[in-house]
Amino acid sequence: MAETGVFQALLITTGAGLSTAIGSVMGLYSRRPSAAFIGFSLGFSAGVMVLVAFGELLPTAVAVPALGFAGAYGAFFAGMVTYFLIDLVIPHEYIGQHDHALVRPGNAGMKSQEGLGRTGLLVMLGITIHNFPEGMATFIGAMEDIRVGMALGIAIAIHNIPEGLAISAPVYAASGSRKKAFLWSFFSGISEIMGAILAAAVLMPFLSETVMGIALACVAGIMVAISLDELIPVAKTLDSEHAPILGVITGMMVMAISLYLLK
Fold first, then answer.
1. CA angle, 146 then 187 then 230, to 5°
2. Closest CA to 31 of 116, 97, 111, 102
3. At CA 191, angle to CA 185 and CA 194, rounded to 5?
4. What are the boundaries of each domain within the chain?
5. Alpha-carbon torsion 95, 134, 87, 61, what sign?
6. Longest Cα separation, the chain
7. How many CA atoms lie within 13 A of 214 on its CB side?
8. For the chain, how far is it from start to end, CA to CA, in angstroms?
9. How far is it, in rounded angstroms, from Cα 226 to Cα 198?
10. Tens digits of residue pLDDT in 108-144
């Protein structure tokens, strides 16, 4: 792949990762978005990621002669298992657990400052854990096809906004420091860029059709795991009505139409 392709892929990933800063500012200076809006947004992102995984990345990997169906699906499940093991081994929490995103300074029944500080730290770890492979996914998707990279970047940017909010709110409530709350949230977004840089450093020296096919299948598995294990359950936790499934349907429809128009 040409150097300009690498630069574009890194640029898309950087934009998606730094969108956590938008949510951080919202958590510090503006009213929290409604639960229905966040649920729809997370569902939308999950819909985009699942459709891209099964409709674009996995079929591309299956079409690689050296992989075929068995090899591509083996790499797909390896991606899912890898994400599961990371999620299992590292202690963390995620938005939607214990209403992290709803914590505000001055709320009645607010937890102790020490408890809120720990909440902010664990939420940041949880989001950083899944931002890292998301950065790798966006970079690899963009390297294969710029339109896929753009679609993933937009979907990830959309759900990174409430994630930034989920970090900044409890940290600000615990410390009273806007700077600290913003930096913690900002750091979680940086992990996405680090994931892209790692993918570039590892893949570029060995880049071939087979290596790219394995990477795309693994990325598809990671994205499906993120969607099913985190995005959709959290969306349902925040809004138990119909906003999450409407988000999933809308995300899939928008992604399908986009892929069709850009062919």
1. 70
2. 102
3. 150
4. 3-261
5. positive
6. 61
7. 11
8. 20
9. 19
10. 344 445 555 555 566 666 667 667 777 887 888 788 7
Instruction: Report helix angle 178-203 to 113-144, nearest 10.
Output: 30
d(CA 51, CA 46): 8
DSSP 8-state code for residue 64: S
Question: Model pTM greater than 0.70?
Answer: no
The token duo for 159 is 């759900």
Give the span between the Cα atoms of 141 and 91, in whole angstroms: 29
Structure letter (DSSP) for residue 97: G
The count of other CB atoms within 10 Å of the CB of residue 201 is 9
Residue 188 has which token pair?
């979680």
In order of 28, 105, 174, the CA distances from 115 in angstroms are: 19, 13, 8
- State both tokens at 45: 């992102």
Apex 75 CA angle, 19 and 89, nearest 5:
60
Distance, in Å, from the CA atom of 108 to the CA atom of 56, rounded to the nearest integer, reads 48
pLDDT in tens, 152-171: 788 788 777 777 776 776 67
